[in-house]
Amino acid sequence: MSAHQLxxxxxxxxxxxxxxxxxxxxxxxxxxxxxxxxxxxxxxSLPVKHWYFEKTSEWxxxxxxxxxxxxxxxxxxxxxxxxxxxxIQSLGYDSWETVYFQRATVIFSECLLLYALHRxxxxxPSKITAHAAALAIFLSPGLLIIDHVHFQYNGSMYGILILSxxxxxxxxxxxxxxxxxxxxxxxxxxxxxxxxxxxYLLRAYCLSPNWSLYPTSIFRIQxxxxxxxxxxxxxxxxxxxGPFVYWEQIPQLMGRLFPFSRGLCHAYWAPxxxxxxxxADRILIYLAPYLNLPVNHDAINSVTRGLVGDTAFxxxxxxxxxxxxxxxxxxxxxxxxxxFFRPSSHNFLGALILTSYSSFLFSWHVHEKxxxxxxxxxxxxxxxxxxxxxxxxxxxxxxxVSLFPLLYTTQEFPVKVVYTILWLVVFLSAFDKLAxxxxxxxxxxxxxxxxxxxxxxxxxxxxxxLLHGLIFNNKYEFIPLMFTSAYSAxxxxxxxxxxxxxxxxxxxxxxxxxxxxxxxIWVLFAFxxxxxAASLDNFRTGATFSLEQIPIDSPDLSIAGIIQAPYIKFGIxxxxxxxxxxxxxxxxLPGQTSVTTKNxxxxxxxx
Length: 607
Description:
Elements: H1 10-23, H2 31-45, H3 65-78, H4 96-109, H5 111-123, H6 127-138, H7 141-151, H8 154-169, H9 173-184, H10 194-206, H11 215-218, H12 223-246, H13 250-257, H14 273-291, H15 321-341, H16 345-362, H17 372-381, H18 386-401, H19 413-434, H20 444-472, H21 478-505, H22 510-541, E1 544-545, E2 549-551, H23 559-569, H24 577-586, E3 594-596, E4 600-601, H25 602-606
Antiparallel strand pairs: 1-4, 2-3
Helix pairs in contact: 2-3, 5-6, 5-8, 6-17, 6-19, 8-9, 9-10, 9-12, 10-15, 10-16, 14-21, 15-16, 15-22, 16-17, 16-21, 17-18, 18-19, 18-20, 18-21, 20-21, 23-24
């Protein structure tokens, strides 16, 4: 079947979708709307060399230069709509002309996504399944929620990503690499995908063009290809960052792009491994008195305060950027090894998805909106066969449900809930009919997990969106967010494990599966070792540490004895008993039968 015989066509769907998006112009908008209005003002009012220094507003420019140039281009049209929106001093300015203009630019920018999906359908051997996937992406509730209500410009950038993937499928690897380089200069979050691009371009373009497994063929360097790719990437990055190198502003620009002072978790936990870790820590706080676990009382409220950069764990060991880096890179290595030795376009897309999974699940300070980095590329692959679809289902549910907290107003309830459920029912049902049978048997546990997980979604949505407010009014507002994040994280992790099994068991490649398992085990051991080392460092030389639990009602120790024990043990002068006794009794939890002795500030005591 040719592309023009498919109904509804992408263009027809785009027209209907645009009508819905126009109706949403007056809807809720997040602070990201003011962020982009301010960027319009910055790029229009100031010379380029001042863009990354301007800080009149707290919403400073923190995207790479190509996106800043894109904002400048839009500002040239904005001055004819409402010049006041381009005033840097117009903080919080949102006239109806400004709102309609910015909303409209999001819709127009999605033309790039529409074109990329059209190219994908034309390049695919199976037009029907490719067309279904293209419709699912263009009508994605994730893009509707994030771009057209919350407000961002993700659609156009995912268009560039999909176009790059299409170039790879067509064998045009130079264009694939260059388009991805341009994408990195638009939004640096796509660095999550860079390892897969690096390995694939290295193996399939810069080394042997045939995909033999013989070592003498693998390492045959294609010098002309290396030169073309190197010069092309250098030209793109030079166009983006060259002026800032000349002005010696790279440290300032990098400081804006990579603010490392932020904490492990975002204010709302992204549905990844650290959401599960944080949820487990919350549960252990209440179990600690019964399990005789030490509790860092200063950290009890930190994970629930919603402050960026303010994440601490009360019971579980603290997580450092080193831990997240080890886990992220370590879990990417198996997929990258398979891609290196079997560099097909199918394996490239699979490795791209798995590197995105690893980055989202284990990286430092991940935003919930980054889930689209997994969902949208996986949508292109999920109809390969029914085993791929089985791994995709829980991701589709978990990923979209995790975005619900972005829209917390009553008016947007139908948009996020009704539209998302409708999309899930329509497309997952259609995908179930279109996905061909897999050559290998399906996995019983994965199928059952997917079924049970999806069944739980409806009562969870009902509770978090409606019942919690009716029962508790405005109290315990973090509970539905915590449940949503933890539930969604389980779905994403389950989907990741399912797709790992599918990816490495393809063609009965048991050697790859074994190798990946060994690497995963070593990564786990490395993580546990570094976590243990960090825990011991905190105990011995960190800013604070806690000693053994001492029974509150011990007949052998008075309160004074409890106070003095840790200080005497370490040869430190005992402070005033009254102040320390007050600090201890204030921190005793209801029902607690033991108390952690006074935290000692080691640096202060010995400084």
